[in-house]
Specification:
The protein is mainly beta. It contains two helices and eight strands. The protein has a single domain (8-16, 25-114), classed as 10 Kd Chaperonin, Protein Cpn10, Chain O (Roll).
């Protein structure tokens, strides 16, 4: 398994539905799809980062822990993270209910954590 360092997060993008709930086939322009937000499943996270010196990994100051955890569903930008060509064990993907492209991104690239299965695309829940 891969163990991310610092505040890196390993995610698996969820495949978008190509058919709407009403049964209509959704055609997406390739350029607009690349910039659209997408849902992903967190597979692994790093411990966090030190605010004074992110690049060098210095231990000056207090560690800022990573807030997301494996198994979380998150929303990321369509261009977030870097694609890698390593193989992830299918058992790991199955354990988190993940499928699709695997990327490594910074925690700061994660826009939101989906905390409820009631959240649907196009809706906003206020508490």
């Amino acid at each position: 398994m891969i163990r991310p360092l610092n505040d890196n997060v390993l995610i698996a993008l969820e495949k978008d539905n190509e058919i709407s709930p009403g049964g209509i086939h959704i055609v997406q322009n390739a350029k607009s799809a690349a910039y659209a937000h997408t849902k992903a499943r967190v597979l692994a996270v790093g411990p966090g980062h030190y605010p004074e010196c992110r690049a060098c990994g210095s231990d000056r100051g207090a560690l800022i822990a990573t807030r997301v955890k494996p198994g979380d569903r998150v929303i990321v930008g369509g261009l977030a993270g870097d694609k890698y060509s390593f193989q992830i064990d299918q058992a790991v993907l199955d354990a988190y209910g993940a499928s699709g492209e695997v990327r490594m991104c910074r925690e700061a690239e994660i826009i939101a954590v989906i905390e409820s299965s009631e959240v649907r695309e196009g809706s906003v829940a206020a508490e």
